[in-house]
Amino acid sequence: MEEMIKDQDTSLRKYVLRRVLQAIPLVIAVIVFTFMMIHLFPGDIIYLIAGEGGSAEYYDFMRHAYGLDKPIYDQFVIYLTKILQGDLGNSLYFNQPVVTVVGERIPATLLLMISQFTIASILGVLLGLLAASRPGSKTDGSVIVLSLFWYSIPVFWSGQMLLYVFSLRLGLFPTEGMVSLTGDVSGFGYVLSVLRHLALPAVSLALHNVALLARVTRSSALEALREDYIVTALAKGVKERTIVFTHAFRNALLPVTTIIGLHLGVLFTGAVLTETVFSWPGIGRLTYDSISRRDYPVLIGIFIVVAVSVIIANLLTDILYAKLDPRVRYK
Amino acid sequence: MGRLANRQLEVKDLRTYFFLRNSVLKAVDEVCINIGEKEIVGIVGESGSGKTVTALSILRLVPFPGRIVTGEVIYKGRNLLEVEEIEMRKIRGKQISMVFQDPMTFLNPVMKVGDQIAESIMIHQGIEKKEAREQAMRLLESVLIPSPEIIVDYYPHQLSGGMKQRILIAIAISCGPSLIIADEPTTALDVTVQMQILSMLKDIKNRLSTSILLVTHDLGIVAGVCDRAYVMYAGKVAETGRVLDLYEDPLHPYTRGLLRSTLSIDEFKEELETIEGYVPSLISPPTGCRFNPRCPCSIEICRKEEPKLLSKKGKGVACWLYR
Amino acid sequence: MLQGTTRVSRGQVWLKYASNRSALLGIVILSFFIILAVLAPIIARHAPFRIVAKGLQPPNLAYPMGTDDLGRDILSGFLFGSRVSISVGLTAALFSIAIGILVGSVSGFLGGSIDDLFMRGTDFFIMLPRFFLAMFLATIFGTEIYITIVIIGVLSWPGTARLVRSRFLSLKEKEFVQSARAIGASNFLLIFREILPNAISPAIVNGSLEVGNAILLEAGLSFLGFGDPNNPSWGFMLSIAQHFLSIAWWMAVFPGIGIFLTILAANLVGEGINEMTEPKSREWRRGGPIGKQTT
């Protein structure tokens, strides 16, 4: 009788390495795709880079700088190199590198995304598990109905409604921005100010995500509860609460993690739209402004940044999944 | 009919029905089982005979939409069917435990096997995790798992089928139960491993003085391991008695048919003997004796009235041939 | 009432019943909006973008949904906006189901390198954030309504394709296919007669959900400014409403309700069909005697 004594750390490390290596061609694919699409532009590409209303000499200069007079393969190499070096072009409005413009605003978006997602996941998962623990009951029914309801409300509209009721009408929360312009710039007062500004946008986003997570957790938990090992646990005399919140939960978490991975793009989208409603100084606001300013390099840059972020986030989710599922960790 | 002295468990007139949308499936219909101390009792039958549902009914683990309609399950002087669920949880895993069929699916894939064993110990004996882990390791040793200090941290998928089944057994014996219910514990295993598991069960009966209720479809297993057996057909008990008596002189035509078809395989007969016909629907079973459509010896009354289980030649048999 | 049916099983029955009803409700709501969209030019009292009255009027008898900042009738705008949402939604459903089934079944059935290739491509598009992708494509190709509809349609089928493919894969190996093959059925027959009918249900469910996604996507795009000003949609109306939120709540409420109801309807249909085709019972708890609590 042999036992396979595996070096468990190596197994996980190998998996992580493999996933990282798989992510690289994906990033390249995004760049290729972006390049292809840019070149499908029905007008002169130079407008996407240098904006409209420039002089002929300016355009010629830019054309040369971006190698637009060269064959397409060379163009792609130039493009790829620039991006890998972090050069996403220049913002037409700010006259600064796109990376700077975008980079300055990412932390605000991340703050919003992470805060609302944390609340949403804890609450959503709890509700989903609660519903699964009493299938067919009123609790279950209400979770199903409410989550369907909230999930269908467009995030930016609920943001507008919340803004109207709690901010404009009741005056409980500030109406825009991340921080009040007057007041402390650091310390506790600052943090409090940020929190007050964060409250409404985070809540409107969180409601949507709680609904999604509750639904997904509920069905995933119900699947897990139908498995045979739950009967073993019942036969051991384990309490119902432990069965749902430990035995089933740890298995249900796996498909939920996968689904979260698939939804990362949507998370970003929600944040972007909500920022516009609340004038939150993140990427969303930047997108909105850049559209009206026709700042194409910024828009294209945002696309690349978000796509790559999603790839990275997917990678992290996969690694998280591997940590949660021992069948992946220990082969 | 089972030793009168020192009955561990007594199942009386158990009826477990499944309430489907428009019909009722009578999976277990008036079944009586007795289990004495220190004996291995088998329940034999084909699939659909109700043997598994009977076993599950004892611990009140009947799956939806099944419910126990009437009957008594007397254990240590109490009727388990009247006890509150909270009480029942104290009995499950501690006084009466269960071993299931497919160790692959009946172990939680994301929990370490040591933790799954320790959980039982912690619940029923209020012991701390560290101590429970120690006990789990000792249990692994007792079920003959090598290097228990390493295996205790393993996950089920890292172990072979036989080892996983032994984990299930370790879980079952962890709190010193007086009765273990084993539902087809070897069906999913290789033949060589089957023997190991069965001899382990016999060992448990002897060393730990535990009674075992063994549910199986395999007559060979019954012959090799059980002291007494109940033959079930279509939700009812057809015949029961000491295993040697059953095999030497089967009374019920169904038992005879079963033994004949099993032996014909073992004896490499040219034509395999089978029992004609199919297992009946439990929603609308045949009137009278449920076996009568397939019975080579059926007489008039068999089609009209159900035979009761009566004593005959030291066995119990439910057949009109033995009035 | 059958003796012995328990509280538990009543809950199961309610769920099935409710899901049938909710799918029906969803279809009713969607039909309502489809009718609204088709009849808009006839029902609307005013041209949607014509300035007809004093601006910023709250809902009143003449203008039941009020007027916007420029004095346009919001109700007329609502009616015409429904046309955009419905077209987007239905196109997405169509693309998603038709192309999704086509790609998914061919890929799942043929397997091998073709499957690999198709799935690589599909996964790439599933992974990319749809909204940003749509934005990017809108930047390149423009914001005319037809382009938006095509873009959204094109982005809606990868998910369905994946689902259909996995169904195909699992069905391919099942017995009834093997037996058909043994009899000598051609590949074509196998796909259409045997496997396809069973593979369609996830496509339909996903198709309905895609309607909701598409409407939301279009609304979001318009809200940010990628809308077609010649065909203002509800999202577009919301983006204008944002500026006047404190003084004209009706500008935001009505278009928002429109988006909400259509998405809700699509989700009701999708979820309802899902519940109906899912035969498994939800009850995992185990029990014993009637009258005693389950585990």
Task: Pick out its properties.
heterotrimer; B: 323 residues; alpha/beta; Rossmann fold; eight-stranded mixed sheet; four-stranded antiparallel sheet; 32% helix; 24% strand; globular; C: 295 residues; mainly alpha; MetI-like fold; 0% strand; disordered N terminus
Note down, in words, how this protein is organized.
The complex is a heterotrimer of chains A (331), B (323) and C (295). Chain A is 77% helix and 0% strand. Chain A has 331 residues and is mostly helical. In chain A, helix 5 crosses helix 8. The longest helix of chain A has 39 residues, at 187-225. Chain A is globular, with a radius of gyration of 24 Å. Chain A starts with 7 loop residues before the first helix and ends with a helix. Chain B is built from ten helices and twelve strands. By secondary structure, chain C is mainly α. Chain C has a single domain, classed as MetI-like (MetI-like fold, Orthogonal Bundle), CATH 1.10.3720. Chain C has helices at 7-43, 74-110, 112-127, 130-141, 145-172, 175-183, 187-226, 234-243, 250-277. The longest helix of chain C is centred in the C-terminal third of the chain and has 40 residues, at 187-226. Chain C is globular. Chains in contact: A-B, A-C, B-C. Chains A and C meet through helix 1, helix 6, helix 7, helix 9 and helix 10 of A and helix 1, helix 3, helix 4, helix 7 and helix 8 of C.
